[in-house]
Amino acid sequence: MPKITKREVSFWSNFGLSFVLLIGILIVVNVISNKYYVLKDLTEEKLLSISDQTKKILKELDSKAKSENKKLEITAFMREGDEETKEFERLMKQYEYNSKSIKWEIIDPEKKPQLATKYEVRTLGTVVISYGEKTIKVDISAQDQNKTLESQISNAILKIVRVIEPRVCFTEGHGEKDPNDTEILGISKLGEFLKNEGFQVGKIRTWEPNPIESVCDLIIVAGPQLGFTPSEITKISDYLMTGGRAIFLSDPDSKDNISEIVSSWGIGLDNSLVIDLSSRALGASPAHPVIVNYDEEHPITKDFRFGVLMRIARRVFTSKNVSGVDATEIAKTSENSWADFDWQSGQVKLDPQDIRGPIPVAVAASGIPGTKGGEAVYGTLQNPTTTQARIVVFGDSDFISNGMIEILGNKDLILNAVNWVAERGELISIRPRERKVRTLVLTPQNISTIRNIFLFALPTIFFTLAVVMYIRRRKL
Q1: CB burial class (10 A; 0-12, 13-18, 19+) of residue 284?
Q2: Residue 25, SS3 per DSSP
Q3: How high is the pLDDT of residue 380?
């Protein structure tokens, strides 16, 4: 039996100690890295990052949770290993990285049915978000294709974080569309969508003595068929001049006088009918214009990639520059359209007096007319420090009706407009990021170079290395 020398004992002792120290260091590093780490999205399109809107919501959550000493708990009921589960897990790691107030877990309801029963979860893909006594459920398995998982989770968190729910008031008494009407031309679906976005929904009669700002955070005038009285026009105009918020939807065949309210903001409406030949591609009448051109800088339509189908629309445009007002034509029809001014004759064709497309059908404006900085005397109920009024004018009201609101991007456009007017930019739809298509185009010279590398250069290098190694081994 060979004798073990002291040198060998010392070597193996040092080796064993080093091995133990290495394992210990790896364990410590692993523990520390689980708690303290840096996430870096290396994709050019930032496909794996959460949006700036979500980061603002999480910052607001941290401030609220710190003051109330609470945590936001997110529990997802999903099947382990599903692709949807992996996507949710990746998203939650981003939320957890950007917020110290979030705890989350994924539960397989088949393995823990008692928890599914506790939260009354009946389908896979249900996410339960709890904060103190408030709980919201989000069904991501049936989510709208136009909405991302991030937008659904972030909007649910925002509903918990925000204490005050802004009140949206629909005007009535002039033939406007009714948020309680479930018929095809009613707008009850819009009312429900607004409630889901965290708004209170009600009505207002502008001829009653109560000030608008005392009961409403913003008003929606949805397709009135009759005009407002002079006293109502004065009341609405005064409301806007003191930092009010409003959305006007006006139809070309109505007798409303909305133009008298918005003209001082540099917004014009004429009695034209927008004709769009591109609508035929959707099987619709040319009198049903398709909106495809959007202002890429305005928050309402930034990154908006969907078409919007209107039933009949009139031209809405910026008529003049007004001091203190920033007005923008945010949505236009295609180039295959025109504003027809002789449509009531029954013969619709492009005449010399008509205006060729693209035709603007929506204008957004902020500020106060006649002021230097566009500021009112005081702020709004939701934003006391903000003193700018905001209004949006659409040239059609039917695109938000029950029969049309879920077509193409109709719902997204009106909800984006409401959220911008109410200054709830965080709730503007978070769109999925798209990976850019990259193609590699090789010229004949490139192809020849690559072929020569593989046929001649690489074999030559390997052969040379083999010869060198052979010679060196012969010398040993």
Answers
A1: middle
A2: helix
A3: 43
CA dihedral 45, 49, 51, 56 (to 10 degrees): -150
Closest C-alpha to 337, from 273, 410, 404, 267: 273
In this structure, what token pair is assigned to residue 331?
């949505």
8 Å CB contact between 324 and 389: no
| SS3 track for 255-284 | CCCHHHHHHHHCEEECCCEEEEHHHHHHCC
337 token code pair? 């359209």
Is the predicted pLDDT of residue 35 greater than 50, yes or no? yes
Does residue 178 surpass a pLDDT of 60? yes
Q: Which residues of 82-117 are buried (b: 16+ CB within 10 A; e: fewer)?
A: eebbeebeebbebbbebbebbebebbbbeeeeebbe
Model pTM score: 0.61
pLDDT digit string (tens) for 180-224? 999 999 999 999 888 877 788 999 999 998 888 888 889 999 999
**Using 50, 70 and 90 to split pLDDT, how confident is the model at 19?**
confident
The pLDDT tens digits of the residues spanning 292-310 come to 889 888 888 887 888 888 8
Q: How far apart are CA 41 and CA 312, in angstroms?
A: 45
**337 three-state secondary structure:** strand
Q: What is the DSSP letter of 324?
A: T
Q: What percent of the chain has pLDDT over 90?
A: 17
| Two structure tokens written together for 258 | 């909305």
- Determine the Cα–Cα distance for residues 373 and 89; give it in Å rounded to an integer: 46
**Which residue from 404, 395, 352 is spatially nearest to 184, judged by alpha carbons?**
404
Q: Which residues contact 325 (CB under 8 A, 6 or more apart)?
A: 265, 266, 365, 366, 367, 368, 369, 374
Which residue, among 149, 67, 78, 81, has the nearest Cα to 107 in the 3D structure?
Answer: 78
**Pairwise CA distance, residues 141 & 196, whole Å:** 17
